[in-house]
Amino acid sequence: MTRTDSDSWDLASGVGITATMVAAARALASAEPEPLIHDPFAAPLVRAVGVEHFVGLVDGTAAVPEQAADAVAMLTAVLAVRTRFFDDFFADAAAAGVRQAVILASGLDSRAYRLDWPAGTTVYEIDQQAVLDGKNAALAALGAAPTAERRAVTVDLREDWPAALRAAGFDTAAPTAWIAEGLLIYLPPQAQDRLFDNITALSAPGSRLATEFHRGDVVAALNERSQQLADSWKGAGVGLDFAALTYRGERNDAAQYLAERGWSVTGRARTEVFAGYGRAFPTGQEAAGLSDSTAIVAIRD
Ligand SMILES: C[S@@+](CC[C@H](N)C(=O)[O-])C[C@H]1O[C@@H](n2cnc3c(N)ncnc32)[C@H](O)[C@@H]1O
């Protein structure tokens, strides 16, 4: 599937299947002996989506081709650290008194159901209609109850999502904690800029934003590695074409872009974030691209 301005998808196709892939990795990370994260909804959500190979991965019944084993381990290691980084970001924001959160491109993110939100917190989740419909149905079937006031906002992030967010009750006067996790590479460069412009316009003083940024040239390396993994799944019926799903080429550096718009920005290399959690970044060829990202936290004074 090649991206167009009006493409849409569910959790088993297009960009949506990447949400299922990373949820599978979160399930594997949660099942590690000394886990960095605990996402009890990841495996059930993957089962509910029903992409056979991912179900087999989380259940330990899929035959992982030898050439894919390292890549699956790498994806799991990255998702453990990435998930924990964003979990900690929300915990810090809550400790600082922020009671409004927005999860951009939430996919199968279950934070609205598993984090310890302070009373009075509202969590908005934004993603495509079919993605959130599928997720809502799966969570309802599981009898899961959100741990905050959760509002699902179905809209394309390349369109006028601020209007949809406001219509769902978003308070522009309240400080907000925003996350854009696993999203930027799926947006065209101009849409990334517009995303940050919109976030900036909607952010009252005291708002915070966390994201992970890959330079355009790194996205190409990332695609190449991710595609090797995806190709090893082809026989198992998983059709993933990363080059067609992501947008490569020059894009503004997210940290610099936000700093120029009045945010106080801290950026850390992914390898540093790993070290901060006492984990070494895996070595080997799978590391290309994946190691080269910056974890960003920005605060609006
Ligand atoms: C790799 S997944 C990440 C999901 C989630 N943030 C996580 O880390 O588990 C990418 C997500 O971005 C969403 N997405 C990508 N482009 C989007 C757009 N233009 N509008 C809305 N959602 C989008 C997809 O539907 C998918 O859920």
UniProtKB/TrEMBL annotation:
What the entry lists under SUPFAM superfamilies is as follows: S-adenosyl-L-methionine-dependent methyltransferases
Is this entry keyworded Methyltransferase? yes
Q: In the UniProt record, does the keyword Electron transport occur? A: no
**Protein purpose:** Exhibits S-adenosyl-L-methionine-dependent methyltransferase activity.
Similarity annotation: Belongs to the UPF0677 family.
- Cite the PANTHER family for this sequence: S-ADENOSYL-L-METHIONINE-DEPENDENT METHYLTRANSFERASE YKTD-RELATED, S-ADENOSYL-L-METHIONINE-DEPENDENT METHYLTRANSFERASES SUPERFAMILY PROTEIN
Protein name per Swiss-Prot or TrEMBL: S-adenosyl-L-methionine-dependent methyltransferase
State the organism of origin.
Mycolicibacterium fallax
